[in-house]
Specification:
Number of helices: 4
Number of strands: 0
Structural class: mainly alpha
CATH architecture: Up-down Bundle
Shape: elongated
Order of helices and strands: HHHH
Radius of gyration: 17 Å
Number of domains: 1
CATH topology: Methane Monooxygenase Hydroxylase, Chain G, domain 1
Helix content: over 70%
């Protein structure tokens, strides 16, 4: 997802040096780093079950990855089309 986001925004994105490796801490870290969906983020942070939280985060991340892949493919297609028209 980081690679797709960087490609889509034409920016270099770096991962943090340390990502939690324990399930509970990881689930809260992911929830706290979701941007643009404050309601969903709050719901995740309020979930009592770590496994439920991680499952929902996996769904969100998978959907986001699919959307980013589609948007990146469209961007690449339009860029290729524009480059062909310029030549």
């Amino acid at each position: 997802m980081v690679h797709l986001s960087a490609k889509l925004t034409d920016k270099e994105i770096e991962l943090p040096d340390k990502i939690p490796d324990l399930p509970r801490e990881l689930s809260y870290w992911v929830a706290s780093n979701l941007y643009g969906a404050a309601g969903e983020q709050q719901a995740l942070l309020e979930m009592q079950s770590t496994s439920d939280r991680l499952e929902r985060e996996a769904e969100i991340l998978n959907n986001t990855r699919n959307q980013l892949a589609a948007r990146t493919a469209l961007k690449d297609t339009f860029n290729e089309f524009n480059n062909n028209e310029e030549n």
